[in-house]
Amino acid sequence: MLRNLSSQPVVFLFWLLHFLPLPVLAACGNGLGRLFFLLGRRRRQVVRINLELCFPELSAAEREALALDHFRVLGRSLLERGVLWWGSHRRLERMIRIAGTEKLRAQLDAGRPVILLAPHFVGLDAGGVAVAMRFDSLSMYAEQANPVFDRLLLNGRRRFGDQLLLTRQDGIRATVKAMKSGRPFYYLPDLNARRREAVFVPFFGVPAATTAGLSRLARAAGAAVLTCVTRVLPGGQGYVTEIGDAWADFPTADAEADTARMNAWIEAAVRTMPEQYYWVHRRFKTRPEGSPLIY
């Protein structure tokens, strides 16, 4: 969403807005999201297609209401980025509560590498900050087209502790090495994958091009996989990040079955807060051979 915005005036506005109390900022974000819904014809259509594929049991009116709720929470998360970028440590601790850090700490204290499986919910950046405030961690970074926002995002992710950001070009060896050094990997696996990197496994019953990286990385590093989901709370109450138990019997020798298990778990998590999943992304862009294009 940031790539389409001009730089300096918007950054100044974000900086000004971050001083607002969170309930006021949340209300402004809800209004911004409603505006995005009304004006963002292309993204609105992507959301409608995704919801029709994933929730065929809902009526058209119910899906339209869900789409609007999604844009509202997306707008809110966008405006609250300013707090993530400039808010004090104390304010962020109040804003983003976290549960389950003892599960992560137990794995690290036992000397085991850890992957935090963090699906694309709109609160994922807040979750990344919550983890970074408490652990020296690892995450992947894709350079942004806008250099101003690229610098803001980089600085925001590096504000606390000793955070390591790698790119795709750094490769699996650097990732495994960093995990083995004691850095939990904040891993986002569930966007559309390119065909040469993908296995097609169900997501809401639709074949989805999905990277098998979770299974392969866990096997290469001997890592435990812990889930990490961040929920946007209503009424400007902030966020809560929940770290789950380590997955049993993972990985297996079957990377495709492991990837199907991951998608099934993400789907179950989405159903608990469907408006907060990142529906504006073309999740089903890459199709199996011979299948018609969706978007």
Task: Name its key features.
295 residues; alpha/beta; seven-stranded mixed beta sheet; two-stranded antiparallel ribbon; 9 strands; 16% strand
What does this protein look like?
This protein is α/β, with parallel strands linked by helices and 295 residues long. It has one domain (2-276). The protein has twelve helices and nine strands. The protein has helices at 8-17, 22-39, 41-54, 60-79, 81-86, 89-95, 101-109, 124-132, 147-157, 171-180, 213-221, 255-272, and strands at 96-99, 114-117, 138-140, 164-166, 185-187, 198-203, 206-211, 224-232, 239-246. It has a seven-stranded mixed β-sheet, with helices on both faces. A two-stranded antiparallel sheet has the order 6-7. Helix 2 crosses helix 4 (60-79), helix 3 crosses helix 4 (60-79) and helix 11 crosses helix 12 (255-272). The protein is globular. The two termini are 19 Å apart. The mean pLDDT is 93.
